[in-house]
Design goal:
Structural class: mainly alpha
Shape: elongated
Helix content: over 70%
Number of domains: 1
Largest sheet: none
Strand content: under 5%
Order of helices and strands: HHHHH
Number of strands: 0
């Protein structure tokens, strides 16, 4: 499989994931705000975070969708998934009350499974970034050779 196809597949998986989770958050925004108010470290910002998360996910989708901004989208995906995973790890280590705001099919995962799911997507983002950079370097080397 070519690097371009692998990068496209990984980007598409992130697009599906983020569109799916953003739509679920928007559909049930009031429940999301209610649940977030009990999350550790959220403090007085549950309304802001409830709206910022799905909008951020959709911005990342746009970055991933267009080839000129795909690398930025992959970095943003890595950052978003890493942030979610660090927060999830913090919650697993610090509290016994673990409400889920994922919605849809992802809500069926227990918290350790969710952690594994997130780690898998972090790995995918890292692989795609590495492949993207390698592909770009190879393309630049071919241009230099032909000129």
């Amino acid at each position: 499989m070519s690097k371009k196809i692998a990068i496209d597949i990984i980007s598409s998986l992130f697009i599906l994931l983020f569109v799916y989770t953003a739509i679920n958050k928007f559909i049930d925004i009031n429940t999301l705000k209610f649940i977030l108010k009990d999350y550790p470290l959220i403090g007085t910002m549950p309304v802001f975070i409830a709206w910022a998360l799905p909008f951020t996910e959709l911005i990342v989708v746009l970055l991933l969708f267009f080839p000129p901004t795909r690398l930025w989208g992959l970095y943003a995906s890595l950052l978003l998934m890493s942030s979610f995973t660090l927060y999830l790890g913090y919650m697993l280590a610090s509290t016994t009350k673990l409400p889920c705001t994922c919605g849809g099919m992802l809500q069926q995962l227990n918290w350790p499974q969710h952690l594994i799911f997130n780690l898998f997507f972090i790995l995918l983002a890292a692989i795609a970034i590495k492949m993207y950079k390698k592909q770009k370097k190879e393309t630049e080397e071919r241009i230099i050779v032909f000129t």
